[in-house]
């Protein structure tokens, strides 16, 4: 047999190598081989449906192992939605601010230097800032949240939220929940504008309602009868949501009671208006069984770091027997 004839019958001289899968999947988790540029946010969006669940990917993968070419773990099973253990249960602190400045006279004003110290403390101590959407799911017993979850909130709508707080929060990779009362937006150089609110919303901030005119909703005014009082309540609660929805193209889910004051009628109307939750200024943290229309917040008025740290209660320990 000639060499030519033999060559024509032979198979390929190079056998292709078998490629290995880039992902492996079970009922409980996915293993994904990391590619250049992939982040926990990208993986959370791809496999869990939401970028804000990146913390689940981060918790499952120590930083030293999250490298290109290695397999990252994406957990699919929701563990311990309520954060309950044999030692206690998870709680969510909400920090409440009002305005910011280089130096302050009022207790409602936070010096920018101190605010940055506080935000840096959160970052360096492993706290994760979440938004109201995540808190709603936690209270509904639908999804877990990070162990050291905290919400940063800012009331009223001062421009210093945009000029001072926003750059500091962005520096450390955090956002906040802003509660705006409509009549104050854009009225002076001290007030935030609608364009600034739209920018903050694009950057991941949540915009909630703080009513129309920031009036005390818990009691009638001197010149009000029952009918005019109810009309005022509906305007402050319902109409403020409608305006925010229209101006910002959103479904406003959270309300902040002016002065933190409410009664049963106010809470009921807030629910009827379509909000999913509402916040007070009663001190304390919030476990999963908190009434979503009686959520607690701590006003950050003092400026020492020890007192600030004492407000960050993310776990309630059962009393020792």
Structure commentary:
The protein has 321 residues and is α/β, with parallel strands linked by helices. It has helices at 3-9, 40-48, 54-60, 112-124, 132-139, 160-171, 194-202, 226-248, 264-272, 305-310, and strands at 23-25, 29-33, 71-75, 88-90, 94-97, 99-101, 109-111, 128-129, 149-156, 177-180, 206-209, 254-256, 277-279, 298-299, 315-317. The strands form five sheets. Strands 5, 8, 9, 10, 11 and 14 form a six-stranded parallel sheet that branches. Strand 8, helix 5 and strand 9 (149-156) form a beta-alpha-beta unit. It is globular.
Low-confidence spans: 1-8
Distance between the termini: 93 Å
Major sheet characteristics: 6 strands, parallel
Mean pLDDT: 93
What's the topology here?
Elements: H1 3-9, E1 23-25, E2 29-33, H2 40-48, H3 54-60, E3 71-75, E4 88-90, E5 94-97, E6 99-101, E7 109-111, H4 112-124, E8 128-129, H5 132-139, E9 149-156, H6 160-171, E10 177-180, H7 194-202, E11 206-209, H8 226-248, E12 254-256, H9 264-272, E13 277-279, E14 298-299, H10 305-310, E15 315-317
Parallel strand pairs: 5-9, 5-14, 6-7, 8-9, 9-10, 10-11, 12-13
Antiparallel strand pairs: 1-2, 2-3, 4-15
Helix pairs in contact: 2-3, 4-6
Which keywords apply here?
6-stranded parallel sheet, 15 strands, globular, disordered N terminus
